[in-house]
Amino acid sequence: MHRMSKVTLGLVQSRAYATKAQSLERHIELIREAASRGAQIVCLQELFLTEYFCKGEDVDRFDLAETIPGPTTAALCPLAKELGVVIIASLFEKRGPGLYHNTAAIIDADGSYLGKYRKSHIPEDPGFNEKFYFTPGDTGYKVWDTKFGRIGVLICWDQWYPEAARLAALAGAQILFYPTAIGWLKSEKATLGVPQHVAWETVQRGHAVANGCYVAAVNRVGFEEETEFWGQTFVANPYGVITAKASVSDEEVLVVPCDLQEVEDFRRIWPFFRDRRIDTYKPLTKRYLDE
């Protein structure tokens, strides 16, 4: 497969629209904008077709789900081929009767559907009632060889787990993408808003450093009931330096050039993979070290 050192990311930070059809139409426009500005890998936010519907338990919301491959990949695969871009699309997947996942579909620049990643870590917090809707993923931490680089895709709550980032990096990911829907609850923003955002950004910058790779986090914006999604989509390089960041509140396409040679260069001078003591890590498979 042809390899290029330079790659340009297009991170689509958007908001909720009234219908899935309207959202798809608008996001196709935003993907086209990203491509016109030179993006080669375009990543959409978590559950981009709908509002963030996990703010309570409602069985009717399962009707928002679809199969993967399905109607949305059928629309995006020809678009990827037309534009010559890789597309990462986060969707609500109906796998079978009563069985649903929070899933990202990966489409290569030739329009081929490469596969899916199912969100592994499922949160359950006020305003984020995801355990009601999503079965924990069973795909493992997969990576894909795309036209423009070897990428890993994880989803939102996966952002807090160094094990997920590590396993994707060990499989060769040069860039970790995190489609995201995270925001402030009105009741918490005044006291916890700044610390919450700092924690979210810092832990992901740490994944970039610990694994010597790029991290791209793509969040949504806007107010949905009690939640204000905080945007601030960003890219961090292997040193954890934020090379680009979007606004707190605006729909925008963040176009970010990256040099994948930096991954190799960083790992040569800080060879964390070389010095891992894999003979000592078996206890990581335990829930808690209390026995």
Summarize the structure.
The chain is α+β, with helices and mostly antiparallel strands and 291 residues long. The protein has one domain: Nitrilase/N-carbamoyl-D-aminoacid amidohydrolase.
Q: How does this structure look, described?
A:
- By secondary structure, the chain is α+β, with helices and mostly antiparallel strands.
- The protein has a single domain (6-285), classed as 4-Layer Sandwich (Nitrilase/N-carbamoyl-D-aminoacid amidohydrolase), CATH 3.60.110.
- The protein is 25% helix and 30% strand.
- It contains 5 helices and 17 strands.
- The chain has helices at 20-36, 71-83, 162-170, 186-211, 261-269, and strands spanning 6-13, 41-44, 86-96, 99-107, 113-118, 124-125, 128-129, 143-146, 149-153, 175-179, 183-185, 214-218, 221-224, 227-230, 234-236, 242-245, 252-259.
- A 6-stranded mixed sheet has the order 5-4-3-2-1-17.
- Helix 3 packs parallel to helix 4.
- The longest helix is centred in the last third of the chain and has 26 residues, at 186-211.
- The radius of gyration is 18 Å and the shape is globular.
- The chain starts with 5 loop residues before the first strand and ends in a 22-residue tail after the last helix.
- The model has no long low-confidence stretch (mean pLDDT 97).
How many structural domains in the coordinates? 1
Percent of residues in helices comes to 25-40%
Global structural class: alpha+beta
Q: Secondary-structure element sequence? A: EHEHEEEEEEEHEEHEEEEEEH
CATH homology superfamily name: Carbon-nitrogen hydrolase
- How does CATH name the architecture? 4-Layer Sandwich
